[in-house]
Design goal:
Elements lengths: L1 E7 L6 E4 L3 E5 L4 E7 L4 E7 L14 E5 L1 H5 L7 E8 L9 E2 L1 E6 L4 E8 L2 E5 L2 H11 L5 E6 L14
Antiparallel strand pairs: 1-2, 1-6, 3-4, 4-5, 5-8, 7-9, 7-12, 9-10, 10-11
Length: 163
Amino acid sequence: MLVPGFLDSDRQPASVVGYPTKIYLGDGTRFIEFRADGYSGQLVFGNVADVDLPEEMLDELSPMFVDLGWMVLGEPIPRRLESISLYLDDASDLLRNRARAAVVLFAGGRVLVLDALSTLGIDIGGAESVRDLDREILQDGRGSRVVVHCPARTRDDRDLRRR
């Protein structure tokens, strides 16, 4: 789980500061990018071949990526995704890969919540954040949830993306 960040050497002691406007999940050769659209409060997502830093960070002295897998999940992110639940509200548009939030379920039951409605970019949470999303988006009857199982597989269990 890679998140843009930068080295803030003005702090004592110097520290790495996360800048979670983009989050990447991947295996080093392909990634799912989640990007916060600050204007609409939506999470824009899609497959990418490589990671890139937000343009506004390129002037920083030491931009970098921070791997938050250990801190968020308590272990390196498992390689296999089970499903992604997309939470939709009035501004969401699945045809344009836009959702209000995403809940990523990994093999072994690990959960990662990405919520775009944050002043700092993408709010990152664990299983406890799912209840908050359910209450905030689903309870009033205006929102919905779509579950995408990953990866889609054929009957003989071959990954469809490799065909």
